[in-house]
Amino acid sequence: MEVEGSRKVVLSGFNLDPEEMIAVNNVVKNYSDKMNHKIGFKELRLRLKKSLHGKAFLHEIRGTLITDKQYKSTVTDYNLYAVIAKVLEKLMHEAEHNERTNRQKK
From residue 15, how far is each of 21, 33, 34 by CA, in Å? Predict the structure, then answer.
């Protein structure tokens, strides 16, 4: 998935049903818009790894956010959309915090 402008969003390992991909794209687009507005970024990468545990899939998302620095986060949960949201929240908060502390140092 490519997003307009200078920001780039890369999803890998997302072999999902079309309905699920639409929902995933909506969640990722909302967060990428929010991140771009708050901190700006060059690239956002999300990698999905699914494993079957009992009768349900356990989803692991590894996220990388690239601004002037690189931030990484990994979250595992049974709810795919919650995992995506948690990873993106962590990345956004970490980048915001770093940007705030850098401004305070100047």
Answer: 8, 23, 25
